[in-house]
Q: What sequence folds into this?
């Protein structure tokens, strides 16, 4: 049994959210630079130049990359031999979120009572927390400030088994075409296939955490990712929808066994401001 | 090359803008998003005055992050325009001439833009830090109780924007997609 202090969790979460909001990761920056070389459309290239310049300004002047500093999504891989001391784990995370959004001049975008008064909670809490219990005595925390524009274009389809691979491809490409210019392309497309309805949606979000463009280790899924990426980039939407060949930088798919009657497919779109940071305690 | 444009937009300027043009805007912009639009549309419906004179003005759909000490504003990029579509035709009828946001507009908004000779521009979503550098001054002019959704008056210099819908029916989203799809 290893002890981790709740206060250390708070500090880690606060630092990660600040860093994620000011600094794009090397993987997404490299993917954008590669896209700049490949994009044929002049307005598309100008958009990518603007995005890269924005990343420089945000990093050097400590201005958030985007005014939408997101919903505070937190993924935890909690080792089963860890004992959290000195407080409640989820409270510790929310305290870290509160601290980051206050000290970091980040926008607080969360409203309570979503279908009625929609009152701002004032500190960007509560975080949306996903916890996996894993072997070991470590705690891995990944934060993903998720912008609303792209999140609003998420889709779930409970397909028929007979729809098969082709049905999956058409559903994902259709979701991106419907979203069009709204989710701030170039995108990273998270796809969850199988499981149950909520399992598919969770996989689609989790897939966004992968290093940009790294294929699924399963060759059949990697092949599906390639086909969807090609079809999406043939839509012509381009960076910010101004027309172009790069609508998405990558497709990341995850899969899970499902029921004999089911073929769930979920899509979660990540805008080009693909902000996520992780650390291991 | 981006065209330098002074705000508010004049009839002559509006007639010269074409879908796909890159612009650098200087002058005054009014900022309003979801809740402020709802209130403005309700005020117009009741025959009340808007909290600022909208005749000939340009609205920017944006909700900034908090301004750090020494800066006029935090990150200040556009939000998705679709959510404003239901209210926009009323504002165009009241004299609004320009809108800045991101993402496609409804058929009703495009029809109203043609009828009232107004334009829709886009700024690059997710470029909030870069765009904030073009904001010289920011002040709250109405609905302060809405917090980050209050109506702001911005003075901007060389604010980068692209024409999506011009007064002639041109539409960069439709034309750009058609050009590069395979």
A:
């Amino acid at each position: 049994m290893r002890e981790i202090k709740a206060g250390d969790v708070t500090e880690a979460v606060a630092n990660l959210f600040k860093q994620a909001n000011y600094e794009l990761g090397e993987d997404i920056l490299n993917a954008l630079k590669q896209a700049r070389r490949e994009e044929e459309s002049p307005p598309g290239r100008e958009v990518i130049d603007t995005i890269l310049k924005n990343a420089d300004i945000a990093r050097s002047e400590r201005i958030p990359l985007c005014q939408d500093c997101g919903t505070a999504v937190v993924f935890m891989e909690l080792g089963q031999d860890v004992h959290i001391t000195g407080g409640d784990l989820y409270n510790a995370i929310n305290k870290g979120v509160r601290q980051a959004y206050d000290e970091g001049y980040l926008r607080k975008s969360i409203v309570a009572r979503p279908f009625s008064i929609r009152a701002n909670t004032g500190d960007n809490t509560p975080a949306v927390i996903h916890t996996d219990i894993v072997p070991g005595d470590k705690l891995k925390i990944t934060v993903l400030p998720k912008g609303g524009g792209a999140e609003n274009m998420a889709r779930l389809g409970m397909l028929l088994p007979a729809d098969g691979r082709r049905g999956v491809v058409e559903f994902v490409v259709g979701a991106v075409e419907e979203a069009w210019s709204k989710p701030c392309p170039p995108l990273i497309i998270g796809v969850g296939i199988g499981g149950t309805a909520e399992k598919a949606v969770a996989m689609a979000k989790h897939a966004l955490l992968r290093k940009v463009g790294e294929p699924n280790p399963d060759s059949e899924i990697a092949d599906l990712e390639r086909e969807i990426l090609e079809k999406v980039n043939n839509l012509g939407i381009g960076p910010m929808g101004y027309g172009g060949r790069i609508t998405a930088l990558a497709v990341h798919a995850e899969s899970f066994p499902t029921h004999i009657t089911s073929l769930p497919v979920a899509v979660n779109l990540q805008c080009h401001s693909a902000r996520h940071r992780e650390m291991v305690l | 090359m981006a065209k330098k444009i002074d705000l508010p937009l004049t009839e002559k300027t509006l007639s010269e803008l074409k879908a796909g043009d890159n612009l650098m805007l200087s002058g005054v912009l009014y900022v309003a998003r979801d809740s402020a639009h709802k209130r403005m549309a309700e005020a117009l419906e009741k025959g009340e005055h808007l909290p600022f004179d909208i005749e000939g003005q340009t609205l920017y759909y944006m909700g900034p992050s908090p301004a750090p000490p020494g800066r006029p504003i935090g990150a200040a990029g556009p939000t998705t325009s679709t959510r404003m579509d239901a209210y926009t035709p009323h504002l165009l009828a009241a004299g609004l001439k320009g809108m800045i946001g991101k993402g496609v507009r409804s058929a009703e908004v495009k029809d109203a833009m043609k009828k009232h000779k107004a334009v829709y521009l886009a700024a690059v979503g997710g470029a909030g830090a870069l765009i904030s550098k073009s904001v010289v001054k920011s002040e709250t002019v109405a609905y302060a109780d809405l917090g980050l959704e209050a109506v702001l008056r911005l003075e901007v210099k060389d604010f980068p924007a692209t024409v999506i819908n011009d007064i002639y029916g041109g539409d960069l989203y439709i034309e750009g997609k058609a050009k590069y799809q395979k």
Remarks:
- Residues 34 and 83 of chain B are 7 Å apart (CA to CA).
